[in-house]
Amino acid sequence: MARIDVVMPQMGESITEGTIVKWHKKVGDRVRLDETLLEISTDKVDSEIPSPAEGVLSEILVGEQKTVPVQTVIATIETDGKGTAPSPPPADAPPVASVAAATARGASPASPAAAAPSSGRFYSPLVLNVAREEGIGMDELERIPGTGEGGRVSKKDMMAYLAAKRSGAVLPARPAAVPAAPPAGITMKPADAPELRAKYPAPEHEILQMSNVLQKMAHHLVQSVHTSPHASAVHEVDMTPIVRHRDAHAAEFDRSQGFKLTFTPYIVEAVVKAIKKYPLINSSVEGDKIIKKNFINIGLAVASDSGLLVPVIKHAEGMNFLGIARAVNDLVTRTRSKRLLPDDVQGGTFTISNYGVFGTLIGTPIINQPQVAILGTGAIRKLATVIDEGLAIRSMAYFTLSFDHRIVDGALGGMFLDEIVRTLQRFDTGLRF
Fold this sequence. Notes:
Elements: E1 2-7, E2 17-23, E3 30-31, E4 36-41, E5 46-50, E6 55-60, E7 67-69, E8 73-79, H1 100-104, H2 125-134, H3 138-142, H4 155-167, E9 189-190, H5 194-197, E10 208-209, H6 212-227, E11 230-238, H7 240-257, H8 264-277, E12 283-286, E13 289-292, E14 298-304, E15 307-309, E16 312-313, H9 321-336, E17 350-353, E18 373-377, E19 381-387, E20 390-404, H10 410-425
Parallel strand pairs: 14-17, 17-18
Antiparallel strand pairs: 1-8, 2-4, 2-7, 3-6, 4-5, 6-8, 9-10, 11-20, 12-13, 14-15, 14-16, 18-20, 19-20
């Protein structure tokens, strides 16, 4: 038998340590290759870490809620094969959503399957490596049915697919991906706090521990309020053209793309167009200098069971509607399945918060520093509205723009928000996918 070391992965060049949130297996349990072994938390994201090998979890060296430096051995797995564990990659290796031992077997960044899957489906470095060697691109990889946890594609699935492909057999297509539903609420565990227990006795009170993500978010929001003088503008938007277009094409889109068409891509596209017209909105402030960004990275506030995360669509200015829709689905799915990498939540230049999904009509979101504006989108409701001196039933919503009044005044904020509204209300309903 061989012993495989499981190490704390380095989830990005700036990440120096990680906290073990939960072990999904206990000592003596058998684990499959790429099966979820544990959850870790860094100061950027929470991630589920797959097993680097198949075997028996023989030892857990670092317990839950313990923080250790990256590359620290945190467990060992006894495998059935012979040989030694692969050595971990150097500290400057590109980050991947796996343990370092798996990275040593992983795919080259230049592999044809290395592009982000539009469905948000997770692929292990081993599977990506096989895909690279066999010349399988991401579009083809997305069609391979998986038998692993959560429909994940294993090496066994890859070998079966390749054998069937060479023999001319046709494998059944995998079911369309369904994004994880929004969480019912933030998951928090009871905290051991004797000094507070005396002040807040049970059973009248419960003392809960904030997650790492929740603590970071709280600090970030407090810092934002202290940094930027917040001002807000609210506009009403007639979403009827968008609602009708989505309803008309939802089934076709689901069949062709493998995921649901939501309202978010429509809004992101409108925001990108408005930023191109009013680029000062896409800035940050350093001292008495304004840093205007000539690229557009859109952050999406996504609720997860560990807190609010803001993954980023990079270079949205170069994407068409379908590209935006795929990027939105990818980020939301990976956020809720804990597959984000630190780079996914960095570099945003403008943020959208869709609190309307929870039924909220109007909100005043807090700016995501160091950005200077954030858009909040409320719930879409059918209302009686006056059009051309007559009443009509329309799908209406309220959009709020919170902006940094140091460089964005009411005129610029109002014109920018009005541009978003007019783009949505004049949407090209002839768009097909």
